[in-house]
Amino acid sequence: MLTVVMGALIGTLLITAFGQGATREPSQALPGPASRLPVPVGPPTPLTVALHSGLRIQLPVAQSRVTAIGYHSSGDGALPLTPLGRQGNEGALARLAHKIFGGGGGGFVYYQLSGGETAALDVGALPGTDVYAPVDGTIVGISDYILDGRPYGSRIDIQPSAAPSLVVSLTHLSPDPALTVGSTIAASSTKVGRVVDLSGVETQALSRYTQDAGNHVAIELRAAANLLP
User: Fold this and answer.
1) Burial status of residue 47 (CB atoms within 10 A of its CB: 0-12, 13-18, 19 or more)
2) CB within 8 A of 12, min separation 6: which ones?
3) Could you say which residues of the chain have pLDDT below 70?
4) Model pTM above 0.90
5) d(C-alpha 141, C-alpha 229), whole Å
6) In this structure, are strands 150-160 and 130-132 parallel, antiparallel, or unpaired?
7) Burial letters 21-40, b for 16+ CB under 10 A, else e
8) I need a labelling partner for 85 at 20 to 30 A (CA). Which of 68, 119, 150, 202 fits?
9) Three-state SS string across 182-194, please?
């Protein structure tokens, strides 16, 4: 009797062991995370995204690399821009008015990030994305971009050929090594720098409309006489 019981127990253990071994899935390592550094795709197709009088501001990032476009207020005498395209977060009354009376723009979408002001234009892109000149003109300044007393990337000042009394300033980027004061640049074709990651040092409102931290290149326009060093 004892022999029968022991045989049954051994048989059960063998079946259990081999059964588990037959159904167990081999462990698989998860693939590593994809690189966050964008693959260069070349300059953007010329596209005007904003106006100020007769000055046209061209998209500074290749279309396939843009995460979102937004406008907000700014200080230091920045001049208002007229957005082109369609506002993606306009209010219900504005949408109704545009449906009845027309207007509201078309094509690409932009977002109003604060109030109704449009003095600063943010063009979203991943850190490392190439940035191209938004206007034809001449580089008149390359300086540190200061936040809370510390430099983060650079500010690039451009005197537009079409409006020499104005200065277009780009921030949230590192300058291209070939760029110097006095360089002549062409809109949508001259590379001026790359987007830098400022997500750790400032709250980026554009992140409400992107799938990332909201990094971007920022564009502002000022009268040359009011430009701060």
Assistant:
1) middle
2) none
3) 1-38, 90-106, 226-229
4) no
5) 9
6) unpaired
7) eeeeeeeeeeeeeeeeebee
8) 202
9) CCEECCCCCEEEE
